[in-house]
Amino acid sequence: MAYDKNQATHEFTRWSESYDRSILQLLLFGPSHRALTRRLQEVVADRPARILDVGCGTGVFASKVRSALPNARVWGIDLVAGMLGKGQARWNHHREHVLAVQGDSERLPFATGTFDIVTCANSFHHYPHQDRAVAEMNRVLMPGGRLLLIDGYRDGLWGRLIYDVCVAGIEGDVHHASARRFRELFDGAGFASVTQRVFRGPAPFLLSEGVTGTSSAIKPPHFRPVAPVATPRSA
Known about the structure:
The protein is an alpha/beta fold. It has helices at about 5-15, 25-45, 60-70, 80-85, 90-95, 130-140, 155-170, 180-190; strands at about 50-55, 70-80, 100, 115-120, 140-150, 195-200, 205-210. The protein has one domain (about 5-210): Vaccinia Virus protein VP39 (Rossmann fold, 3-Layer(aba) Sandwich), CATH 3.40.50. Helices cover about 40% and strands about 20% of the residues. It has a seven-stranded mixed sheet, with helices on both faces. Helix 6 (about 130-140) links the parallel strand 4 (about 115-120) and strand 5 (about 140-150). Helix 6 (about 130-140) packs across helix 8 (about 180-190). The chain is globular.
């Protein structure tokens, strides 16, 4: 049976209880968050920016972005209410500058051209329709905006063992895209340029970066902008 959103919701609702204590925070999430934060600092510097973190979970990375980029405004979106709820303390602490939204990566509840930067870290392999998600990330970016997407690097023997065998054995029929497939997805979504960088280690990961075109001809939004944004209450 193909992996679907119901499976993802069930899995992450269960995982939310221990997510912040997971060994993956040390092996994969921490190193990938640091790499992504450094790249954001290079791109944004001290300029004001509107940043959307897709698949934000409990808000660990969104809070790091806020700390690293004091002039940024950050939105986090996640499909699973339980994950957002477990991050309630973080959302409350950063409530003036970091906002949480429950929503679907395939139909982002934001107007076209809303954000300067979209990030997605370590959740993309859970998305059943990856082409739709990348297209939506492109849509909500301003002309000249950037998508920074990190996921496990499954090319090569070690990557296939880690992600296609071990991770898939635990998480089900998830799909870690190859570097080539990521380029195809970005190209298909209309990104004007795509660059990639591989980070080696016990859990290697790939950073794919796409820049939108500068044309003002943009698609109409699916939704009106959401404001104000409310976070779910903890159980």
